[in-house]
Amino acid sequence: MATELSQSTLKEKSQLLTSLNTQNLLDSVDAFLFDCDGVIWKGDSLIDGVSDTLDFLRSMGKELVFVTNNSTKSRRQYAKKFHSVGISVSEDEIFSSSFAAAMYLKVNKFPKEKKVYVIGEEGILEELELAGFTPLGGPHLILLSIVLCTMLHLLQVGAVVVGLDQYINFYKLHYGTLCIRENPGCLFIATNRDAVGNLTDLQEWPGAGCMVGAICGTTQKDPIVVGKPSTFLMDFLLEKFNIPTSKMCMVGDRLDTDILFGQNSGCRTLLVFSGVTKESDLQDPSNQIHPEYMTTALSDILHLTNNKF
Amino acid sequence: MATELSQSTLKEKSQLLTSLNTQNLLDSVDAFLFDCDGVIWKGDSLIDGVSDTLDFLRSMGKELVFVTNNSTKSRRQYAKKFHSVGISVSEDEIFSSSFAAAMYLKVNKFPKEKKVYVIGEEGILEELELAGFTPLGGPHLILLSIVLCTMLHLLQVGAVVVGLDQYINFYKLHYGTLCIRENPGCLFIATNRDAVGNLTDLQEWPGAGCMVGAICGTTQKDPIVVGKPSTFLMDFLLEKFNIPTSKMCMVGDRLDTDILFGQNSGCRTLLVFSGVTKESDLQDPSNQIHPEYMTTALSDILHLTNNKF
Question: Are A39 and A298 in contact (CB under 8 A)?
Answer without folding.
Answer: yes
